[in-house]
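I'm stuck. Protein, please.
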Amino acid sequence: MQSHHHVAVALSRIGRTAATAAAVLVFLCTSMASAQAARVFLDPGHGGAYPGAVYSGVEEQYVNLLIALEARSVLQSRGHSVSMSRTGDTTVCSTDIATWHWDDDDEQYYLYEDDTTGAYPIPYDDLQARCDKANSAEADIFISIHNNAGGGTGTETYYNSWETATDTGPSKTLATYLQTEIVASAGTTNRKVDDVGYYVIRWANMPAALVEVAFLDNTTDRTKLLSLDFRHKVAVGIANAVDRYLAADLIDPIEPRIAGNTRYETAVLVAKKGWPSGADTVILASGENWPDSLTAGPLSYQLDAPLLLTSSQSLPTAVATAITSLAPKNVIVLGGEAAVTSAVATAAADAAGIERSAVERIAGGDRYETAALMAERLGVTPGAGVTVVSGEAFPDAVSASAFSAMRGMPILLTPASNLSASTSKFITEHSAEVTSAVIVGGSAAVSDSVKTALASKLKVSRVYGANRYATNVAVVKKYWPTGDITPYAATGKDFPDALAAGPLAAKNGEPVMLFGWRYLDKTSREFVMHRNADLTGWTMVGGSSALDYLLEWELTKARRLAPPS
């Protein structure tokens, strides 16, 4: 483009002296060491089809990008990890995606397919795509870089405060540090720090700020923006602000948490929380692989038995101690020798103080037969139906665990492409009592051909979403449609904490909800906003390496958002 050529010519005139000075500034202007390595997401505003302000042939999108690239370089030199919404003159998103709007008719948030450019300078689709990239990056902070217009000079920075107390904490502090450090480093006029409802800083899950570095329509400011030396000073200011923000250590735990040092200890603490006075039965499953424990929730609920995890070859000391404390009269081991050896079963019996021969083992030739045998052990409640989930992944079974347990529905497993013979046999043999099935998961998890095969035997429905998190939300919306809830939150990236949480959640009549380490899926966030009035809080299951404290902050931000204007 012609304007890009003008900028390129201007930049080419910056000599080696300025470049050398900039290199020296990397050393001299790093006035503070990084408090810790952080994940920083930089969003150079505009780009591609949306150039932003254009003055004297200089496009805002181009200057924004140059500042962001320089900031990335400085941040990386300090040990930070940096992701960006764009690294060239590109439109982040030019197609319809789900974006957030306010519906005046029913007064609630909803996801809306929008291709309207209208009077707004950038379609919401492009802005949402920037937020989606930041959220997927699980960043510590989000910084959107812009330049102003309108007859002024200097720097101003914004944070979101639209009915969200969380953003008036860390986000305001981040914005304040950005303003202070950019002004100090680059020598710009200090205009203001203010609160607004700008889209990207509202819908980025993490603490976020938007900085307007200078005024593109001001000749003096524009000349500075075309200077590598000036842009480097701005980048140093951004990096200094990031370091100050991290040193402030503003993200604290918010919700109660059940967490041990290992997956085994976390399961022990879950058991102690739910069964403080002991349990007649303890269920023991592999903590190294998930298939045998996938379907344990309903049996645990029926027997009022906690689920403990073990390594295959030896019973962890913490688990043995917990079994002794729980003083069960019965121990049920799930899976065959490859999952839990006889030596472990013996150690569990000894810890419980029961005869070794009294340990019950439920084990089939594969995960599908083991699930069917567990269903037989559970028994069938006439009219309750069964739940069918993929035996090739764990998340959908976690989503199904609590509601299936509370309704007396055995959980059966199947491969994605064909109905498991063990599952088919169980349904056929119990055709008088089992007249319906709920498939949890989309067609990629349990194919339409499997649904058709099931439909030849009984009435079938499917609960699903676009991914594991959306499926999880669909389950909660269906089985906990109204009333107060205090969900158990667990990682959707690994199985142990989520599977151990299932029995406790069912015991207390609550759902298990799945999240990433710092990742709040957009469908999950929408659900949290809609249910704000009856979401009484969360119980986090697992340590901060499974669910970061920042996730708790994100959940709180989601609960307090107000509608966009």
In short: Residues 329 and 354 are 7 Å apart (CA to CA).
